[in-house]
Amino acid sequence: MPDPRALLAALVLATGAHATDSGPTGVDAAWLEHLVIQDCGSCHGLRFKGGLGSPLTPEALAHHDGPETLAHIILDGIPDTAMPPWRALLTEEQALWIAHYLIDPDARDKE
Question: For residues 17-41, b (16+ Cβ closer than 10 Å) or e, as one string?
C-alpha cells in the first residue's frame, strides 16, 4: 500500500500548492485559506467538525497551549496517526498563520 504521506504530498503538489509565498509578510493568505479548506478539510471535515481527523473548531483546539503548539503539530504531524507532517510543504510562518486561522472563528468567516 502506498505511503499516505507521499500521496498527500503528491496531491498538494498536483493542485498547484507551493511553499514559496508572495506578499510582504511571506504569507499568501488566499492560498493558505484554500489549502486549509481543501486539504485539511478533506480529513477534518469541510466544516472542521471532524471526520478521519479530529475536529478543528476553536472549541476543540482550546486545549492547546496556543497557536505555536498547533503550528508545531501542523509542521511535524502526529506519529502513528493519519496526521502527516507538512514541514516539507509549509514554512513555520505559514503553519502559524494556519493555526491562527483555525483558532480564530472571525478569520474563518471572512469573505
Answer: beeebeeeeebbbebbbebbeebbb
